[in-house]
Amino acid sequence: MMWRPGALSAWLAVSVAAPLAGQVQIRLADSTRATYSELHDGLKMGSASADTVARIMSLSNPAALWARSGQALAGKVPWNEGLLALTRLAELQKPAYADSAAHLRTRIMEGNVKGPPGIDPGDLIEPLRAVELQVERVKVGDAAMRSRILAQVPGGKYGLADAWTLGRLGGGTPDTLMALFRAAPDENLKVRYLTLLSFSDDPVATPFLAAIYESPDSAGIPPRVATRASDALLWIGTKRSLDALAEARNVARQRGVYDAPLLGRDGYTFLENDSSAVISRTGKWLTEWIAVLKPWP
Fold it and tell me: Would you list the domain boundaries of the chain?
């Protein structure tokens, strides 16, 4: 099956909660930030899954990481290990692997690569693009990379790898995204910029995100999309950001911001589902993280 261009940008434009197999947001063993994983349900230190994550994300040998991704594609190791390996490979920014990533990505898009039973090899498209983008970032610099990615946002010509890369750029990228959100002329653009901001773990966005969660209507977005602000605060993961989320949730509850029955799902209210997402993403309740995290510098 050939890859459908634009599928990822469409998801990024409208997504409000569900994770997607692809380039991975994951963090483990940081005393100043909460554990976070899009691949696991309630990842906890000391578990077999956490040990695997720690082992792969600490590798500095690009050849070993590339081999692990190939083993996942061949069904010899769990699929998630391949996604983790490519995420780590992108972080290493090794030029020698950009061409290999581009070659494999092209073959997948042309329908010439098969995955294990029940697995779509297209899930590797964005992780492979991230390997390429991170190498390009070294060549052109953060400012040029940021300008190129943001230029594609209004037309929706971007994907998960672009969002993941943008979230790792310095030079005031979160400030730029917040300014673009405020200036956006329509709801769709605001959703796109908020979603892109959720890929950054820079604490500078904490008050901005908390304000959106408290009052999404005032920010110009539908209440359901406020889960992106919630998830962004979890990804920042500091004691302050989680405390801000807890306070914003209390304010929203008192104001009845999310009381509409249509916002509920599976017999639970919006806020109940959003609270359970904390456990799924981080392995603990907000109050537990706030109690144990050390202050971020």
Answer: 1-5+23-140, 202-297
